[in-house]
Specification:
The chain has 17 helices and 25 strands. It is α+β, with helices and mostly antiparallel strands. The strands form 7 sheets. The protein has an 8-stranded mixed β-sheet, with helices on one face. A 6-stranded antiparallel β-sheet has the order 10-11-16-17-23-24. It has a 3-stranded mixed β-sheet with strand order 19-20-21. The protein starts with 9 loop residues before the first strand and ends with a strand. The relative contact order is 0.19.
Amino acid sequence: MLAMHNPGMTIRPSTGLGAVACGHPITAQAAADVLREGGNAFDAVIAAQFAACVVEPVLTSLAGGGFLLAHAVNQPPVVYDFFAQTPKVRSNDAPMPVPIEANFGNATQEFHVGLSAVATPGTVKGIFAIHDDLGSLPMSRLVEPAVHAARAGVEVNAFQAYIFDVVNPIYRLTQETARVYAETHKDSHLKQPLLADTLDALTREGEQLFYHGELGTRIVRLCQEGGGHLTTDDLASYQVQRRDPLALDYRGAAILTNPPPSSGGTLIGFALKLLNEINLTSVEYGSLAHLELLFDVMQLTNAARVDGLGRSEEGVLDAKLLASYRDHIANRQRSYRGTTHISVVDGQGNIAAMTLSNGEGCGHLVPDSGIMLNNMLGEEDINPAGLDRWQPGERMTSMMAPTLIKIGEHRRVALGSGGSNRIRTTILQVISNLLDFSMGPAATVGAPRLYYERDILSIEPGFADPVIAELGDRAATLDTWSAKNLFFGGVHLVEHSEHGFAAVGDERRGGIGVVV
C-alpha cells in the first residue's frame, strides 16, 4: 500500500530538473520521478495524468476528457483539445439521466448520471497524441506509477474522502461501483486491480484498445444495453483537436489560455480586458475598492457569458475573437464539472498545463476494466432547454482553462484550476494577485477568493468583516464561508525564473507542489 504525505505544501529540493503542482502527492510523485529520470515536462504530465486517474477518481478518468496547453522549447505553443464529444445520434430509447444532489456544505448542486449521460471520451486518445508529438520516454514507463498505485492500493486522504462523500450517491449507484468504492472514508484502503490491468493493457495495445478494440466494444455494449447513446462510430471517429491558444496581454505579461470553442479562456480574457483598463497601483489588496472592482468585473462577465459576449462588448475584446466565440458557442453545450489540474515545467524550458475532468462520473464502470464513464451530458447548466436537447456530433465546450504566463524575459508560470464554473473567476483572481499585487506563488494561490453569480456573493474568510458586509449589500444574498473550500477552485501553479523553480498546490483541493 502506498503511503500519502500531507497535501498543500511546497517542497523545494534544488537539483534544477523541474517542478510539478497538482492535486495529490502520488500524482506529483509520478511526475517528479519522471523528471528525475530525464523525462521532459510532457512525459511528466502524462505520468501524472495516469496516476490521477487512480488516486483522484472522482475528478478524472480514462473515460473523461481535458485540455493540455503545451509550450515546447523552440516550438509554437499548442492546445490539445481532447474533451468530450456529444454522440452522433440521440437514442430514442434512452431514459433521462438520473438526478442526484451533491452537498458542498454551504452550497448544493444537482448532477445527473446514468448511461444516458455519457459523452464520447477523449482522454486516452489525447494522452497518446501528446506522447506521439512531445514525449521522450516509453509509454510503458509513464504508466508504471499508476499501475503500481492501482494494484497496491492507496490510503484515501482527507480531501479525497470529502469529495467521495459529496458525490456519494454516484459511487453507490450500481453494485459494481459500490463494491469498488465501498471504503472511501479517510485512511481507508482503495485498491483497483482491474484498473491496473487496463492501464497495463493500454501500454501494450495503444489507443486502439479503447477506440476500436475490446475495451471499446465493452463500452458500446454497456451503453446500448443500459440506455446510453454511444455507438461504435462515436468511438472510432473521435479526433484530438490541436488549436492555437488564445493570446492575451495583461499589464505587459503575455498570457496564453484555452481558445474557443471552450468558453473559459474567452471569459477570462474578457475579464482581464476590463481590469486592464483600470489603474490598480493605488488600490490596496483586500480593500473595498479592490473587491468592488472584482465584483463589477464578475457581474459584467456573467452577463457576457449569458448573451454569448454580444456586440455591445466588442470594444472590450477583439471583434474577430468575439465573432469566433459566437460562432463556436452557438447551440453548443457548456460544461461546468468536477476537475483536476496538473502543471509541470522542466529544466530545458518545456512547460505544460493540463486540466482534466470526468464530470462526476456516471455511476457505471466499464465491465472488467475499473474505468468510470463520464456524465458530461448530465447537467442542466449545459442544457438549459432540457437534458435531451443536446446537439449531436459536436465537441463540448468547457470552462477549463489551462494557462501559461510569460512575465518579462525569464519568468514563466503555468497554472490552471478545477472548480466548475468558478474556474474563470478563480484564474482571474490568481492572475491579478500575481501581476497587480506582486504576490509570490504561495500567497497568490493561498489568498482568499470571492465568487458572484445569480445575485449570490460567495466569499472565503480572510477579508475584513466591514468590507465583506459593505460589499454584501450589493448582492441579494451574501454567502460567507467559514473556511477555504474546493467550491472556490483549486489552482496548482509552477514557476520558472532566473531565481529557480517554485511549485504550489492549492490546499482547497488537496494540492501539493514539488521541485526536483
